[in-house]
């Protein structure tokens, strides 16, 4: 998507723009937000980050959906500490976004079942190998899987719900930056409207 002719003028417009760009990342394989960087907390307390494909965005529930091999290290990290940050950058629109929140892993629930049913056959084969992601192997590359037997047991959905979204739009006539925060306390009802919205110095 080309850079907008003019930056969003109000905070409401900024938030709508950011959420729309995330949704475009799901629909457009060439969009910068098609893949995002997902950071979790490693078992030693340090940061760990990887690039993942953005599968779905629900702007009302404030969730992003990602898919993973259930045996991967990030799953154990999220189970241990659900705090996650997501970062994306689209070079065409010169937009960077950072989102902070919490993630949950669905291994065998309705969400994972529906995501698996909607997955393409080639995508399912990624979860078929018996080798655990990140484990040592004797040689590379491993032959690709041709049968998806057992693959469903290795598949999981990561559902990330953000409570902070930071938007940074880069432009020759002046950068713009804004932050939105939601209050997701124990007694707070889920809301698409942020509790706080503010402009930031770029």
Automatic annotation (TrEMBL):
<dbReference type="GO" id="GO:0010181">
    <property type="term" value="F:FMN binding"/>
</dbReference>
<dbReference type="InterPro" id="IPR012349">
    <property type="entry name" value="Split_barrel_FMN-bd"/>
</dbReference>
<protein>
    <submittedName>
        <fullName>Pyridoxamine 5'-phosphate oxidase</fullName>
    </submittedName>
</protein>
<dbReference type="Pfam" id="PF12766">
    <property type="entry name" value="Pyridox_oxase_2"/>
</dbReference>
<feature type="domain" description="Pyridoxamine 5'-phosphate oxidase Alr4036 family FMN-binding">
    <location>
        <begin position="28"/>
        <end position="105"/>
    </location>
</feature>
<dbReference type="InterPro" id="IPR024624">
    <property type="entry name" value="Pyridox_Oxase_Alr4036_FMN-bd"/>
</dbReference>
């Amino acid at each position: 998507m080309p850079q907008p002719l003019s930056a969003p003028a109000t905070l409401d417009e900024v938030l709508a723009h950011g959420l729309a760009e995330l949704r475009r990342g799901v629909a457009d394989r060439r969009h910068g937000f098609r893949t995002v960087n997902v950071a979790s907390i490693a078992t030693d307390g340090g940061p760990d980050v990887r690039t993942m494909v953005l599968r779905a965005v629900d702007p009302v529930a404030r969730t992003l959906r990602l898919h993973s091999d259930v045996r991967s290290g990030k799953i154990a990290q999220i189970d241990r500490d659900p705090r996650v940050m997501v970062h994306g950058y689209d070079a065409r629109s010169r937009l960077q976004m950072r989102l902070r929140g919490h993630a949950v892993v669905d291994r065998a629930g309705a969400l994972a079942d529906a995501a698996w049913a909607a997955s393409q056959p080639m995508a399912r084969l990624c979860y078929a190998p018996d080798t655990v992601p990140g484990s040592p192997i004797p040689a590379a590359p491993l032959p690709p899987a041709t049968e998806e037997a057992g693959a469903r047991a290795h598949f999981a959905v990561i559902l990330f719900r953000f409570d902070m979204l930071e938007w940074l739009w880069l432009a020759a006539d002046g950068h713009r930056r804004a932050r939105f925060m939601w209050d997701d306390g124990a007694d707070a009802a889920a809301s698409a409207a942020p509790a706080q919205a503010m402009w930031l110095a770029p």
